[in-house]
Amino acid sequence: MKLSFFGADQCVTGSCHCLEINGKRILIDCGLQQGRDEVSNGEFPFAANTIDYVLVTHAHIDHSGRIPMLIKQGFQGRILTTRLTAQLLEIMLLDSAHIQEQDAEWKNRKGERSGAPRTEPLYTVADAERVPEFLDICEYGQFVHLCDGVDLEFTDAGHLLGSAFIAMDLEENGVKKSIVFSGDIGNIDQPIIRDPVQITGADYVVMESTYGDRNHPEHWGYTDNLAKIIDKTMARGGNVIIPSFAVGRTQELLYFIREIKEKHLVASCPDFPVYIDSPLAKKATTIFDGDLRGYMDLDAVWLTRKGTNMFRFPNLQLTETSEESKALNEDPTPKVIISASGMCDAGRIRHHLKHNLWRPECTILFVGYQGEGTLGRSLLEGAKSVKLFGEEISVQAHLENFTGLSSHADRDHLLKWISGFQEPTPQHVFVVHGDREIAPFFAKTLEGMGIPAHAPQYTEVYDLAANTQLAPGYLPERKVSKATPGGARASAAYERLVSVGAMLNESIKRSKGRDNKSLAKFADQLRLLLEKWEA
């Protein structure tokens, strides 16, 4: 009964944890690492064909984005998740695959001039198209017998449509334990989706800590404040550019803008045009327009029964082609442009920033978390200029940050959530999904409350039956150098060596029971290699 940590360990993205029990290996999430956290997306520290199940907490790419890569490398098991997450995965992973292919193509065009070796995409559209073959759907509150010694339940996490906490009852060799994987814990009082469900007890909790060091601002009227920003910008003759995650956050913005238009809150331009410049956001909005029974909050249910379309209003236009996207920056009409990616590191938003950052009449409005090492974080930290498409762009536009508009629980709500675990109280809490400065800090906060906790490092292994650490793991090298407490750093080359070592260890485990002649030959080959290397 072992738990290994293969992602989002003292960093925010790339969620991936592996539970081993009764000869089965179960991944909880298989996410893509983003921003400064991106260290080893191209390799798993395990063989894909040794994984029996994948449980997906929600569809965001940092929790699901390497599932097609897992399939590409030989995964043959089953993937379990909720109905809405399954629908969102189909469009989000295809979009991610397009980005992987485009990035590889761009690197190869550039590499041809320098003689660099060809780059292969992490996975292709064809790999992503295979994902539905592996999906099994679970509804909230449904008890699922996964395999020998493992029963589980998906519970509403209130973070994104379909997001879930995964509670598991485990038994191996007569030892019984319970564990909860939080995925991302949702904020309260968000539009459309329900508040997170309080789970009352577990022996172990794997818990996110994105905002473990701070609270969101006091609740204020998002609709009123968004209206004021749009009104002032329109009066100046500028554009409001909103970098936004295509799934979840964009639909929340549409919900607010519909209210703004219904209440006529923008006096300078009551019928201001709004453009959703993201094919993925367009597809996601179609899903949000669909069957949300069992997923919506009461306000959304009431609006739906009244016949209100929560995400549609006059002068809303959804662009599809790159030509339509480019035309937005040639049109002088003041407008609101909502475009991906949310952290400004890829996608069409970078073109809109190039054309609007230097204009003092415009506003760039951030509405979500900006990871370290991303363009969005650089802008919020006061960059005077940024380089986009090889051109230095002066930052003259107004910058606004809706820090309270977050789908993550803040510090107080994280503490309230974990404090609700009383029957049983946790034997240990593993704090993940937090920067190196934040996850250990939040773990110490829990320790101060009498809750045993620590922030695991990458490749750490923990024995759940004995409640003890088996291997400590390490902290990968970060893209941006910054003095950080909490452990020794490793170079990218060392990370790769550790990943290969983990795969070798798995191969050795799988060799148990083979004939002695083959095992002796394998051992001799390894010994010769090690002796040659040490020499």
Describe the structure.
Helix content is 33%, strand content 20%. The radius of gyration is 24 Å and the shape is globular. By secondary structure, it is of the alpha/beta class.
Structure keywords:
25 strands, alpha/beta, 535 residues, 33% helix, seven-stranded mixed sheet, eight-stranded mixed sheet
How do the strands line up in the largest sheet? 6-5-4-3-2-1-22-23
- Number of separate strands: 25
- Secondary structure category: alpha/beta
Approximate helicity band: 25-40%
Distance between the termini: 38 Å
The helix tally amounts to 16
Topology:
Elements: E1 2-5, E2 17-21, E3 24-28, E4 53-55, H1 61-64, H2 67-72, E5 78-82, H3 83-114, H4 125-129, H5 131-134, E6 135-138, E7 143-147, E8 150-156, E9 164-172, E10 175-181, E11 204-208, H6 222-236, E12 240-243, H7 249-263, E13 274-277, H8 279-288, H9 298-306, E14 316-318, H10 322-328, E15 336-339, H11 349-356, E16 363-366, H12 375-380, E17 385-388, E18 391-394, E19 398-401, H13 411-419, E20 428-432, H14 439-448, E21 453-454, E22 461-463, E23 468-471, E24 475-476, E25 489-490, H15 492-510, H16 516-534
Parallel strand pairs: 3-4, 4-5, 5-6, 10-11, 11-20, 12-15, 12-16, 13-14, 13-15, 16-19, 20-21, 24-25
Antiparallel strand pairs: 1-2, 1-22, 2-3, 7-8, 8-9, 9-10, 17-18, 22-23
Helix pairs in contact: 3-8, 6-7
